[in-house]
Write a structure and sequence with these properties.
alpha/beta; about 15% strand; two-stranded antiparallel ribbon; eight-stranded mixed beta sheet
Length: about 325
């Protein structure tokens, strides 16, 4: 996702006040909170599908989509937050502090998603009312009713950056960052083979993602090396396809919540996992578009939404209607 698309945050940084920073909030956390809550407000009045109201054909398609997902009694959703740097070419300042060049957004996104999951429910929204798993600080649990039956919903969220500061992740925290990147590579690969639904939220790296490592720059410049590295090596795509090809069991739903992910990844992902429903974007987007579409998709799964309603939950804003799509989900 290129830096100009992330200019959205300049207009809403006031949400992240100095008082929030004093309480230990992360950079961008309040922004993600604000965007998430605003989108969930749109979902409060969204009806939840009743199978009895669908045509026999649509009802059967929906039942078949969720059959494999729910047969073990658990809806297993995993969110992998990529190394989500904001590379602007200059220092980033907020709340009177300098975060240097390319600060990371994924830590703030994690805490915002956690807050949304633990929040009380309003209206018909299901992405709420979770409890933190006492055995895992990154996993959240609740009971949901889908198609007339009760299931355990389990949502796990992991992030890739060791700190918010690129200079630290390449300096004093280099080893911690290396370990974090390796952990996230493994987490994402296992999720693709084990989870019912997987959402990646981060950079496409012009086809070189999904990516859980600090950016590779053009030598001597604060500019991401797309031409000489990501577009040539495509390290993240190779790892994702290797994980999908290494297992007979593949995730039923894959959300690639990053810029132009349809063009970058869809064809090869569908070839490796033809039974997987894939949610993608169709352009270089603002952060809020892929972020809110991800939240809408997770909420749709927690409700057991069928084709039309699921698609609508991804596209509750005008920009999401233009740029967010899905393939192989209910066809």
């Amino acid at each position: 996702m290129k830096s100009v698309a992330i200019a959205l945050f300049v207009s809403v940084l006031s949400v992240a006040s100095s008082s929030l920073a004093a309480r230990g909030y992360y950079l961008y956390e309040a922004n993600f909170n604000h965007m998430g809550k605003s989108y969930l407000d749109r979902l409060e009045s969204m009806p939840t599908d009743q199978l009895s109201s669908l045509s026999p054909e649509k009802r059967n398609i929906c039942i078949q989509r969720y059959k494999g997902i729910l047969e073990d009694g658990v809806l297993d959703i995993r969110i992998a937050l990529g190394y989500f740097d904001w590379t602007t070419g200059s220092n980033v300042y907020a709340d009177g502090r300098s975060f240097g060049v390319s600060p990371s957004m994924d830590i703030g996104a994690f805490y915002a998603i956690k807050s949304l999951l633990l929040s009380s429910c309003e209206g018909r929204v299901r992405l709420c009312g979770f409890s933190q798993d006492p055995k895992n600080n990154y996993r959240f649990l609740k009971t949901v009713q889908i198609q007339g039956n009760k299931y355990t919903a389990r949502v796990e969220v992991q992030f890739a950056s060791a700190t918010e500061y690129l200079s630290q992740n390449l300096g004093d925290y280099r080893e911690q960052q290396r370990q974090r990147t390796q952990y996230m590579d493994n987490y994402f690969a296992h999720a693709l083979q084990e989870a019912d639904a997987v959402f990646y939220f981060g950079h496409s790296r012009n086809g070189g993602g999904p990516d859980f490592a600090p950016p590779i720059f053009i030598p001597g410049r604060n500019k991401v090396n797309y031409d000489g590295y990501y577009e040539v090596q495509r390290p993240g795509l190779k790892k994702m396809l290797a994980a999908l090809n290494a297992s007979d069991k593949k995730t039923a739903v894959l959300g690639l919540m990053s810029c132009a992910s349809r063009d970058h990844f869809l064809r090869k992902v569908r070839a490796a996992a033809p039974q997987t429903g894939v949610i993608t974007s169709m352009d270089v987007l603002n952060v809020d578009e892929v972020y809110t579409a991800m939240l809408g998709g997770i909420d749709a799964l927690l409700r057991g939404q069928c084709q039309q309603s699921f698609y609508q939950q991804l596209r509750m804003t005008s920009n999401n209607q233009k740029y967010i799509t899905m393939d192989g989900m209910f066809e």
